[in-house]
Amino acid sequence: MTQIKQLVSQDEFVGFYLLKELEVRQTNSTPPKDYFDIVLSDSTGQLSAKMWDVSSTDKETFFPMGLVKVRGIVQTYRERLQIKIGQMRLATPEDGVSITEFIRSAPIRPIDLVHTIKNTTASIVNDEVRTIVEYCINKAEEKLMHYPAAKTHHHAYYAGLAYHIVRMLELGEFICRQRPFLNADMVRAGIILHDVAKTEELNARLGVVSDYSVPGKLIGHIALASSWITEAAIRCDIPLESERVLGLQHLVLSHHNTGEWGSPVQPQTAEAVALHYIDSLDAKLQMVEDALDSTPESESWTPMIRGLENKAVYRTPV
Amino acid sequence: MTQIKQLVSQDEFVGFYLLKELEVRQTNSTPPKDYFDIVLSDSTGQLSAKMWDVSSTDKETFFPMGLVKVRGIVQTYRERLQIKIGQMRLATPEDGVSITEFIRSAPIRPIDLVHTIKNTTASIVNDEVRTIVEYCINKAEEKLMHYPAAKTHHHAYYAGLAYHIVRMLELGEFICRQRPFLNADMVRAGIILHDVAKTEELNARLGVVSDYSVPGKLIGHIALASSWITEAAIRCDIPLESERVLGLQHLVLSHHNTGEWGSPVQPQTAEAVALHYIDSLDAKLQMVEDALDSTPESESWTPMIRGLENKAVYRTPV
Amino acid sequence: MTQIKQLVSQDEFVGFYLLKELEVRQTNSTPPKDYFDIVLSDSTGQLSAKMWDVSSTDKETFFPMGLVKVRGIVQTYRERLQIKIGQMRLATPEDGVSITEFIRSAPIRPIDLVHTIKNTTASIVNDEVRTIVEYCINKAEEKLMHYPAAKTHHHAYYAGLAYHIVRMLELGEFICRQRPFLNADMVRAGIILHDVAKTEELNARLGVVSDYSVPGKLIGHIALASSWITEAAIRCDIPLESERVLGLQHLVLSHHNTGEWGSPVQPQTAEAVALHYIDSLDAKLQMVEDALDSTPESESWTPMIRGLENKAVYRTPV
Amino acid sequence: MTQIKQLVSQDEFVGFYLLKELEVRQTNSTPPKDYFDIVLSDSTGQLSAKMWDVSSTDKETFFPMGLVKVRGIVQTYRERLQIKIGQMRLATPEDGVSITEFIRSAPIRPIDLVHTIKNTTASIVNDEVRTIVEYCINKAEEKLMHYPAAKTHHHAYYAGLAYHIVRMLELGEFICRQRPFLNADMVRAGIILHDVAKTEELNARLGVVSDYSVPGKLIGHIALASSWITEAAIRCDIPLESERVLGLQHLVLSHHNTGEWGSPVQPQTAEAVALHYIDSLDAKLQMVEDALDSTPESESWTPMIRGLENKAVYRTPV
Amino acid sequence: MTQIKQLVSQDEFVGFYLLKELEVRQTNSTPPKDYFDIVLSDSTGQLSAKMWDVSSTDKETFFPMGLVKVRGIVQTYRERLQIKIGQMRLATPEDGVSITEFIRSAPIRPIDLVHTIKNTTASIVNDEVRTIVEYCINKAEEKLMHYPAAKTHHHAYYAGLAYHIVRMLELGEFICRQRPFLNADMVRAGIILHDVAKTEELNARLGVVSDYSVPGKLIGHIALASSWITEAAIRCDIPLESERVLGLQHLVLSHHNTGEWGSPVQPQTAEAVALHYIDSLDAKLQMVEDALDSTPESESWTPMIRGLENKAVYRTPV
Amino acid sequence: MTQIKQLVSQDEFVGFYLLKELEVRQTNSTPPKDYFDIVLSDSTGQLSAKMWDVSSTDKETFFPMGLVKVRGIVQTYRERLQIKIGQMRLATPEDGVSITEFIRSAPIRPIDLVHTIKNTTASIVNDEVRTIVEYCINKAEEKLMHYPAAKTHHHAYYAGLAYHIVRMLELGEFICRQRPFLNADMVRAGIILHDVAKTEELNARLGVVSDYSVPGKLIGHIALASSWITEAAIRCDIPLESERVLGLQHLVLSHHNTGEWGSPVQPQTAEAVALHYIDSLDAKLQMVEDALDSTPESESWTPMIRGLENKAVYRTPV
């Protein structure tokens, strides 16, 4: 089966792919005819595709995020590759293919990522802090197994959120060893909780965010996480006035650093300062790494990266 | 008894005043001598004062926010009035003066303000909304009787917060009548709750804010109010997912309008838009009214007003 | 006759509509053929439409803002409704339809709006203020009967400008009663004059702004209104140095609050502060109300609203 | 007579100077004694001075902007020169000194500057433009003879405004020759009118601005100049709709380039673009020239210059 | 031969033109057919063109920046002129046409522009300054003969960079005469060097920038020019610590005035201040002149000009 | 010998200290008397001090950054400790004290820091990169042994610059292991070179910056470092066009991330992105650690920290 990344112009191929996007459009002919404007993807990348002269049955059969078997040919259109689909059908159980093989994923298994997060939580010494983190992890757990960290910005793939947390935890451990004045419990807790309410802010399936939820738009993951902590404290009988509750809420509320970026307060504890910069470092480097990965080796520049103020990145020559 | 506002240069006077500020300083003479740098105030205004050659006993006797009887003379120093204190003693119970007579206060009695707020709360039709507002009002009630609305910006006096709420409620009633598409329950609830957590954010006594509390600095009244709503819902068995909980949290979180001003989300319901502009209108006009009130009639311009982008206001001639 | 708002997919219909926009386009076929890209509207809304295979006569017959009788069918194109026009002809006098029935309009009759504005003007006590306002109202009167308040931002419909003024006057009366220190003459005059020069800034017909006039681009309605006041004073023998002339010019010049928004000076009288916030409150709430009105009841979110920093508004559930 | 710029530490001297600033202060001794905190100036610069033990008569005799004869000694205080005044008396007619010898002044005689401005005005070809410029020049003439161009920013000295205009006219002539597509009438008129209403915006005496006038604060020189043009057109029977009136108003309204800097509209004619950059070039270079002039030759850096974003300027070595 | 600027609708014509842009596109018909989407230009302007039904040979024959002979007809498409190409062939040597006749060019011959720049360089008195300028001019010389000054902003045509320098030198001479305190050597050197590294920053051919070079993106012309000066000093044995080296580097580094516009330091010498404003004045007026030139006389407004904050310019009526 | 940090009110003490600041001032008495306004420091902190009635000899004897023996008494002045100096003399060789014992210093010996930097340099694999880094390190070496990293912002103490580099190298090694796609040579080189030209930008002695040098103000350390690389390449015969030269210059030029913060280009290689965030993380955490260290354990809040947007930091309770 041919992987998307390996297709070159003029290839004729047959294979299974994910119908990542599908729209019915009309040609400008009179009368106009329906065709499909499609994005096909697998775990190695994605390509746009056209399927001409679609029937009413076709329009009822195919839908976004479905798995399909495609016979097609690769063409060049405006200097980019594009697939012209000859034949297409839905995958069936007999095909023995699973959707998870076709989606972009963190490079570590979700179950291992969540395991690391739980182990780290268990290692938190302070009872109140550990209890609150456990409560929030339990609340999010099912989604932590597959949620991306963002819609497009960074770690936008299956289990991207858990992967982001785990890489930050590695960096956090290093910083806490390098600077022992930091409270390691709070650094760990802040890393685990800072984006945990993205599981409530975003609607996502298979690592792809479709949109923001209503609470996501009206409250946002920053204030949502603060409410989760309030909830955890009340449910676990921890006094709301506890310095630990206060400190954890400060960590999540301040982690975007400025009001302009959505934080109602700015970092004012050592751990909050550490959290913001650990988060930035991991997110920005991941954006760069992902952009370079998905740019063909032959090209020196990635496309522009929104999270890097719309700058493209130049591939450092070896 | 001579009121501060009536004192003119060369007046010799005796009267009771509030020692609003007091600092011990030293003259530059050799050896240096201690003196008091003082701000005396009553309900009509305040003046700076000096008391020279203070003794060790004086330094132990007098303290800020104490009530004192003063014999003094009014001088002009660098074009401003200043009191030179001849004699000063603490007020005693026999003097029959009460500190509340000497502080700046909202023009309506606190008890009446809180009564209005409670009545309005009781008039809220939706059970969930009313229950949550009642919970928060109870939590704040004792402080609502006397807290100012801010440190210096606006309504910075005894019961200023409750006064701000009540004037906003009047305006809110008008707007809801003018635009029936607004949900009056939510407008009322938003007005009552928007600044309610200033009672946790600020440390205040007698209408004067001494500083921000630790939660005030690390969380801020906006996110604190959101947590109060979470707490109210849990304690009163209202589901956290209720649209009403969400709507109330959105109101308090968005009422500063932009991230730059501390709101993690921007107004995205009709009532949230209304709340922000009702709040601005009331706060700005109160700043202007207070500035004009405390500027002598003979002067055309008020001092610069920080909350109006540091502009002075010109007194419209009659 | 079927109203635009009631049309659903597959409807075949005949009716009169306004040709709000009309452009001749060419198909991509070889040779290309002309077709009309059209927006049809009535007082309840608007829909895009196509008319294929148009003749030379058609291209000479139809023009934007004309009234037409249409036979058509409703189709769905890219998830939106679109009309395919079968037949179309110009409306004739015999049809007994009038263009004003087909345009979006303020909910109060223009004649009543202007009546209210004139009555309020007559109630201004100060002779100089009243005379200047009357002069400006006379200068604008004919256009006040139908001008919108803006191109797209807010009150963008027939008599929208007068409607905006009248709602602001209601709010102004309330505020003047609530805060008697405000000079009611100046508040009323400021409200009536603040946008009056939009009638010179914009070119509009039937409540629709086609573009900005040359003075609109080179001077802008803010400085134009200031010049109107200068002109009124000279023509009516009021000294240019009068405090009233100065005060009125300050009101119009400062009503956008900041230089960034086009005001060369910032509000520095109580009435100027009031005017700016009354204007904001009315304009923002009208944007929200209009956006909710023109969004189908079944949808929770309005489209993004440019005047609300591009935020969509969520419909508060009943 | 010793000039301020020539005084060095330990000099004992007698001379006539301008009492540019004078404030009565009190020492910290008990009882405090009055002394004068003074700024003495002549055309070469200024120095601060103290006069100790002043009498009641002294306090009634001396006033700011008076001319005095001083006997004093130069001391060093906190690394700066400061004069200790031994004796001081008011200058009398017999002294034969004139205040204009003691103030900082443009390097060209005011009468010659105004002559150049009038000649240039007379050379304007278009009748409407010339008439309006003449009207405005007449309105300002008396003040044009001595007004500074700003409070502190640039050309802050006697006849600084006229000097600024004349230098800009020289530059304007050059640019019009270099780029004949520019309308020379409009460039000349724009240069002459752009700051003409500073004569109404500022209160100044002897080249020193004491403060902004009430119209200066509430309207500002930009909108004032636009009103002057309206007034000129009406008084001289030029139609307000004339393209020339419009063009001149656009020039003055847009000359600060952005809303942030006080222009309600941005330059949108070739001449308006030229005017803004000619104004900037002249003003910025004059700031630099003045700062270098008043910095001792021995110092490499001027003080920070507010109009150059608070940067100091380094003296280019010869 | 018909010039682009003279073509009107319905013209049938034959002529030589530059194929400024060429893209192969496909029609929406089934199967899609290839056609050329073309921009034809000569020295008077440019027009878009279509050539339908292109063959494989056509696709191999034609390329951007080639010279072609075209038979075509002018049509109107969406209110704009567009050429429908009937026949097209490559120009041959026998046609006797040269590409330089077909491109937009500075109004002065490149050889004369470079001659002026070299003469001015030779007139620089200070040896170090002159030597460094000569070194840089030599480094850039070949490109100075034809490079534009920018991609689209200003002077975007053949030899536009040299033309910009020469006009600035004229202005610089004037300013140095008007203000003799300026160091004329440094003003001249600054003008010549400020944009000289655009020849390294941009990839350009025939006055058209195709893109930024890698050093252009990673270093930028400002820091590149500073490195050129370092290089010149080392190669010509001028000490790097020389005040002249420092002064020249400061000139190029600061000429964009603020960090926001790419200058790592702000102008802090008189000559650096002069350079920035001379550069702005020349660039902005050239944008305006070019925009007016390429707008038909019959139109009052130019298109929006990006370098003037996206404002259109109004043609001052004669 | 009593350390500064241990002094409490009323202590009488004798000890050696550094005269970190010294100014001669005058009392307000008549005639005024000279006294010293002093800052005494040792490695544990600093305190202000007064020495009254100083003689002419005293004024010639003492100077800033001198080492002195002091007999004094600790007083409280405006709630802060202050030393009243009874006797003071210069330290002599016989006292056996060395100035380096009295200054604030990085917690690692300078020689070890520089050793680490040189070892890391030696480990760079690429010849061009290593050669350039070595050249620059040699150029700076003597100053690397003692220069602070900034005037006040962060690492403002003896060898602070080398300490900052070494901590960043530790973090860089971690990141390169965590993300092997990064070019470790370039990360190491970027870290070592990014601030190396601070040794030319700042004038510093004993870890204290007195001011910026002339090249520091006119060029800045960012463009200076870029010139060092140009110089290194030329002197070491590495082609200026080498991708390595380009890459290193990009690293130093972009490390402040935005134009607003002084970088003429933004990070556009993976290593440049890494460098900026490693720099931020280390600098910000060091500011916090230093601020907490120098705040008494008994206080919850540090003073405001300029580099953290003027926020104070709250000490996380243990």
UniProtKB/TrEMBL annotation, chains A, B, C, D, E, F:
Question: Start and end of every HD/PDEase domain?
Answer: 157-293
Domain of life, per lineage: Bacteria
GO BP term, example: rRNA 3'-end processing
Which keywords does this chain's UniProt record carry? Hydrolase
One Pfam family of this chain: HD
Matching entries from InterPro entries are given as: HD/PDEase_dom (IPR003607), HD_domain (IPR006674), NA-bd_OB-fold (IPR012340), YhaM_exoribonuc/phosphodiest (IPR050798)
Read off the SUPFAM superfamilies from this record: HD-domain/PDEase-like
Q: Name one GO molecular function term.
A: hydrolase activity
What is this protein called in UniProt? 3'-5' exoribonuclease
Species of origin reads Paenibacillus cellulosilyticus
Top-down, what is the taxonomic lineage of the species of origin? Bacteria, Bacillati, Bacillota, Bacilli, Bacillales
